[in-house]
Amino acid sequence: MKSFISPYLKKGLLTFLIFVILCFALFPILYTFVVSIKSRVDLLTFPPKLLFKPTIEFWVEVIKNSDFLFYYKNSLIISSISVVVVLVVSCLAGYSLSRFNIKRKEDIAFWILSQSMTPAVAIILPIYTLFSRWGFVDTYHGIILVYSAFNIPFAVWFLRSFFNEIPLELCEAAKVDGCSPLRAFWSIDLPLVKPGLIACAIYTFVMCLNEFFFAFILTGTRVKPATVAVVSYLPTDVRGTMYGQSAVAGILIMTIPMIFFLFLQKYFVSGLIRGAIK
Amino acid sequence: MIKKEKLLPYYFLAPALGILLVLVIYPLIFSLRLSFSNFSFGMADSAIAFVGFKNFIRMFRDSYFLNGLRLTILYMFGTSLIAFVIGLGVSLLLQKSFFGKKVIMNILILPLATTPVVVGIVWRLLLMPDYSFVNYLLSLLGIRGPQWLITPGWALFSVMIAYVWEWSPFFIIMLSAGLASLPQEPYEAAKIDGATGWQTLRFITLPLLKPLVFLVLIIRMMDAFRVFDLVYSMTKGGPGRSTQILSYVVYYTGIGYLELGYASAMSYVMLVILVLLSIFLLKFVRST
Q1: Average pLDDT for residues B3-10, to the nearest whole number?
Q2: For residue B231, what is the domain's CATH number?
Q3: CB pair distance less than 8 Å for A122 and B34
Q4: Which domain holds residue B41?
Q5: Nearest-by-CA chain A residue for B178
Q6: Closest residue on chain B to A252 (Cα)
Q7: Which chain B residues touch A243 with a CB distance below 8 Å?
Q8: Cβ–Cβ of B24/A213 closer than 8 Å?
Q9: Integer angstrom CA distances of residue A250 from A210, A224, B216
Q10: What is the CATH architecture assignment of A65-276?
Q11: Higher pLDDT, residue B201 or B164
Q12: B207: pLDDT strictly greater than 50
């Protein structure tokens, strides 16, 4: 069957479609930026003013006159330490499950991975009860422990797959030369999985920065991260949403994940695809 | 010395297993015990009693829980199917290589890089009552947009739009990778037989992609089933109970009403549904 649409029209139509899709993907992010530089008055007019005088009043308010940056610093501290814990612990476990002779290691590896499917909601209540008993609520070590626990399953699985790709001969050769297993791990295998470690670190870091639910329940004013702090701009019983402030805070929060995503996309997407096929 | 070497693999494994046992397995057992009790926060230890299946029976007469279950199922199927259709459409459009394709792909997957809480805030801005920019665009087309976030029927739909916006790129990435790996021969044969574009899609592309499509759909459904952050930052469960999905109901019953026993029972029902979904997923992955 021959198409009745001329090829030029078809090409034009396709270009238009792609343009619409691009707008759908990009516009909400751009619009958030626009809201952040509008004045209070311009924000609440309908139809919206397309040409307006930009102002930085909301930026000044969030950065200078609120504690938001303090909470942002909390986010960075919690995420960085969690990444270190996750990498060390998962690297050891992943190596063990890849290289050593352990009974039923496939089952153990699979059991560890399956833990990542536990919904946060199913364990938040007991964790909250235990943490309040131990005095772990609203502390760095408490929230870091939880973030680590939730990122370890995937990291173990991910790093194990990297260790699996190293040819066994390398290790055998080292053994013949009298190299201890610990030494072989540290100076032969570990350097070879560097790309995996970097990818895993970035992925875990972004996951921790983005986390909301655990922090929302397990942290208070002392160690709460930015994702929880931004919620204070949402409406309460006595006032409406603080639109401008929430836009500024939102942009600040998504900056780091976006930068990672754009510049280290290769690592990030590989993490994502592996994460999906887990 | 020999003994030490034998234990090394277990030393390596111990920290990971230890953390998981303390922070995942122990809480799960603790919560299972709670779900058969009448425990609520601040209750004297002597008043805690074993109540059998009472919590589970209560759930299926509780309109709050049933409403949450209904909304969650609607949300789970709705978002996954819409995102799949968008993802398939876009990855078919972008199948051929052309100038600037890489840049377009990079822009298209930006929503994935956005923090979920921020996705809620971004869409709250776009759909704000009275001054919504989306409604302004609709008014240009002569359509009067609804009051998205404060009308019960539209609020859940608004959250679904935001979720679809965030996760369609996931389908685009996965399905593009899938399309690129398909064999060429069936397409050449179809061309010779004079199949139309639609027929090729329906009888060749979709059957070949089926395993991948199922895999991606189930992964997304499992994630949509336990969503919390996006809903909280967009509507806080409102207006009324119109966006209180299951995880919200559990959170509110446990942390809000402090009925930890009942809330734990609810969370176990969620867990069982997720386990069933993942068993289904595993069976499927192993069979293909």
Answers
A1: 76
A2: 1.10.3720.10
A3: no
A4: 36-287
A5: A273
A6: B118
A7: 125, 128
A8: no
A9: 11, 16, 28
A10: Orthogonal Bundle (1.10)
A11: B164
A12: yes
Q: What is d(CA B122, CA A36) in angstroms, rounded to the nearest whole number?
A: 11
Is residue B252 within 8 angstroms of chain A, CB to CB?
A: no
Domain ranges of chain A: 65-276
Residue B178 CA to chain centroid, in angstroms? 21
**Longest distance between any two alpha carbons in chain A, whole Å:** 78
Q: Does any domain span residue B189? A: yes
Rounded to a whole number of angstroms, the distance from the CA of A213 to the nearest CA of chain B is 6
B88 CB neighbour count, 10 Å cutoff: 22
Q: Is the pLDDT of residue B4 over 80?
A: no
Q: Which of A222, A228, A227 is nearest to A140 (CA)?
A: A222
Check residue A163 and give its pLDDT: 87
Least confident window among A104-108, B48-52, B201-205: B48-52
pLDDT level of residue A269 (50, 70, 90 thresholds): low
Domain assignment present for B21? no
> Does B79 fall in a domain?
yes
Per the structure, how many domains does chain B have? 1
Distance in Å, alpha carbon of A45 to nearest chain B alpha carbon = 6
Whether B2 maps to a domain, the answer reads no
Mean pLDDT across B232-259: 88
What ipTM does this complex have? 0.86
Return the pLDDT at B82: 95
* Residue, of A251 and A105, whose pLDDT is higher: A251
**Which is nearest to B51 in space by CA: B29, B26, B33?**
B33
Q: How many CB pairs under 8 A join A and B?
A: 248
* Contact assignment for B128 to A148 by CB distance below 8 Å: no
- pTM equals 0.88
